[in-house]
Amino acid sequence: MTGIPTPFTADDYTARMERAAQAADGAGLAGVLVAPGPDLVWLTGYAPPAATERLTLLVLAAGRDPVLVVPTLEAPDAEKAVGAPALTLRDWTDGTDPYAATAPLLQASGRFGVSDNAWALHLLGLQKQLPGTSYVSLTEALPMLRAVKDAAELERLAAAGAAADEAYGEILEVAFAGRRESDVARDLAGLLRRSGHEQVDFTVVGSGPNGADPHHEAGERVIEHGDTVVLDFGGLKHGYGSDTSRTVHVGEPTAEEQRVHDIVRAAQQAACEAVRPGVACQEIDRVARAYITGAGYGDRFIHRTGHGIGVTTHEPPYMIEGEEQPLVPGMCFSVEPGIYLPGRFGVRIEDIVTVTGDGGRRLNRTPREMAVVD
Ligand code: ZN
Ligand code: ZN
Ligand code: ZN
Q1: Residue 219 has what pLDDT?
Q2: Ligand in closest contact with the CA of 313
Q3: pLDDT above 90 for 325
């Protein structure tokens, strides 16, 4: 499916800004400051050409109108891109102090949530203007701000998942044996673009022993007959992320390789079945981990079970021990247990799952059995 998704409306952006301002208020913050990046795109629809030394900053506070501070030379573009009429632009001109222009928009004291990718330069400039203020990471203060997706966002995430599935179906047809991991990774990237991704974020091809390193991307190793190969790939389509993993085998697997794969597949299935509203995030991790531990590989499952996904490919909520946040319908996250046998091979299976009214729904639909490739 490559259709144009339902556009976000002014009401969507206005509602998101209001939600952010209210959540900040509820968390005891004086407001939220958002620099160019995923948060700004999500809140306003505006992505400046690049984050630069010139200050661009969205200021949100409960009970006040949202204001976007922009350099005068970028104001016309911002005006066009901004999705909500409720948002006022305040421009500042080269040669004037942007922090002095921004300061009156903020309370002179209190704590503000700041988007994680704000430049230190800008934050220090503001702090100098307003010595009574303090700042905290927006992701830490309001981790669930972007976690619950609306219908138009879910439509995009489903389309991104379907596009990644299409790429997987086609990568099974390419030659593996005798080619470098980087060759297969390049094929994967091309397939992701062809299925509509405007941005490819990662194409992991972990063959043989490289598959035992979850951080391995793709290198110069030549894939051999008999290799287990971890594929993990994703990017952005219409601004929303895909991220899926399948583990394939070059030729017929050994009994042990098949057994390890079966364990991961059953663990992933059990964790997906545990998804429903009200269940704590850590419970999803526990279900997958309990299964793998019961099968004797607990110490070889060396990462959390999942992460949220949206306008970025890694974001809260995290499916990790200690995360007590209950699942809410509309949340989207990965379920990706794995087993890693150092020096030998690894297996990981990953789908994006969204929480529905009474359970969970996978956004990736490709078979999870270990595919045999050439
Ligand atoms: Zn093998
Ligand atoms: Zn992944
Ligand atoms: Zn992932």
Answers
A1: 96
A2: 3
A3: yes
